[in-house]
Design a protein that fits this description.
50% strand, 3-stranded mixed β-sheet, mainly beta
């Protein structure tokens, strides 16, 4: 479970005609295609002017960073490539509905014989846009309504109001997003939100009201996020049958935390990767900026993918985390780790591994989980090159453990406790990709290493989510 964070909206879809090489752009010479390419590459040109047509509320100086490379082109092919790259950068800003490129010879006073003018014809998004979509989380679905004010102040800022109603969670929030001029990956966001979630495995309802601010920036091949969050949390029992341990957790708490996340992602796809690796490291420190909660939380995720024969892929995943409380106050049920279910250790019910009281699962302060998967295409490759490519079959082996630790015993005792009573499972299933953000799984699972109090799902298990072990 963990704490519930405000969701930030993805940039608007970017559409527009692809820039290609047309007959009008090349010299009509009766030679082979290779010779045409060679002539274009050897023909020196100078880009004298770059125009932006169609700007309304967008500040022109903000876009100079996105189009600056066009002036460095030395031949016609280079002009086309760099104009296409600039077009993609303009679309990435999420403030234009369409961007077209026109390349023409220079005209007027001062025009050189080999001079070119490049014109970007843009169509801005409306001042206010609305959206309606559905979203898939980890084994839950929701309906999302949004109102966006793109390009709010003329420099790619975005103001967004979002309402989400789901099977286990309802939320609404207001967010402000601002990128750094010339570097869209460096950006700042401010969020105000309210989230209400139900967690039946713990007989718990949690309502979060909070504010957070994020700074995102890349360093070499890594992406980093610095975040401060202040949240007022209200915990309550879902029903009269809630255990005494859950009732003790009920009430109001205030958490103020600083966190840092680092990610390296070289995968070619987030849902069905064929190659590459993923590394995520997240640290959260609470208590030093106020609030009732006081802890240090570490969470690590690693995934390696290797393409094999017959278009099959071997994937290895490893997760791990530890929650270290400060002082004598115990950790809160909303901050602990949870394990089990169709998105982590398959063959077990949702978050039903580890410490529990009267059937309510209380989470743990340390965990690890690992998985080995062999992904293959559908047998006999039906629908290859089309609908069939949305499906995969897989064979899996999952294992993991979750527990509480006595921090006075030392690291060796911690590792020994995490190595005891390991839950594991194996099986096979079929997967369906939903765009490039989520997937569905239908698996036949055989759980092993079951401990007293664990809830299992022996046989068919369905899962939906965006993060899978």
């Amino acid at each position: 479970m963990g704490t519930v964070h405000a969701r930030s909206l993805d940039p608007l879809p970017m559409h527009g005609p692809e820039l290609g090489v047309h007959v009008d752009d090349v010299d009509l010479v009766e030679v082979q295609p290779e010779t045409k390419q060679e002539i274009l590459e050897n023909k020196d040109v100078v880009v004298q002017h770059v125009h932006l047509d169609g700007l309304g509320r967008t500040k022109e100086d903000f876009l100079t960073h996105e189009i600056a490379d066009v002036f460095t082109a030395k031949n016609l092919i280079d002009v086309m490539k760099k104009s296409h790259d600039a077009r993609q950068k303009l679309l990435r800003l999420g403030i234009f509905r369409q961007v077209e490129v026109v390349i023409d010879t220079s005209q007027g006073d001062g025009a050189l014989p080999n001079g070119l003018d490049v014109t970007f014809e843009v169509t801005e998004l409306r001042r206010v846009t609305g959206s309606y979509n559905t979203m898939v989380g980890n084994n839950e679905g929701s309906m999302v309504l949004g109102i966006k004010l793109p390009n709010f102040l003329g420099r790619a800022e975005k103001l967004t109001f979002q309402f989400s109603y789901g099977t286990k969670e309802t939320s609404y929030g207001l967010s402000f997003f601002k990128p750094q001029p010339g570097n869209f990956d460096r950006n700042f966001s401010l969020n105000v939100y309210k989230v209400t979630g139900q967690f039946p495995w713990s007989s718990l309802r949690e309502t979060d009201r909070g504010v957070s601010t994020d700074i995102n920036f890349p360093i070499w091949k890594t992406n980093h996020t610095l975040k401060w969050e202040g949240v007022w949390r209200e915990l309550a029992c879902l029903g009269r049958t809630a255990s005494f341990a859950v009732r003790e957790e009920s009430g109001h708490t205030l958490k103020s935390s600083l966190s840092h996340a680092m990610m390296i992602d070289t995968r070619n796809s987030a849902i069905f990767p064929r190659r590459g690796a993923l590394l995520k490291i997240n640290q959260e420190l609470a208590g030093y900026t106020g609030g009732d909660a006081s802890f240090l939380k570490e969470d690590v995720e690693l995934q390696l993918n290797k393409r094999l024969f017959w278009d099959s892929v071997l994937s290895v995943s490893l997760w791990g985390g530890m929650l270290l409380p400060f002082g004598d106050k115990p950790t809160c049920i909303a901050d602990r780790f949870y394990l089990g279910g169709p998105t982590s250790v398959r063959g077990f019910s949702m978050y039903s591994i580890g410490p529990q009281s009267e059937g309510d699962y209380l989470g743990g302060e340390a965990y690890w989980a690992g998985g080995v998967h062999l992904y293959t295409p559908l047998p006999f490759r039906p629908g290859r090159g089309g609908f069939g490519d949305l499906f995969r079959t897989h064979f899996f082996l999952n294992a993991g453990n979750l527990c509480n630790l006595n921090y006075g015993e030392g690291p060796q005792a911690h590792l020994q406790k995490l190595a005891e009573c390991i839950r594991w499972s194996y099986g096979a299933g079929i997967l369906l990709r939903l765009g490039n953000i989520a997937r569905l799984e239908l698996n036949y699972c055989i759980p092993m290493g079951v401990q007293s109090g664990d809830r299992i799902c022996d046989g068919i298990q369905f899962g939906a989510g965006i993060r899978f072990l």
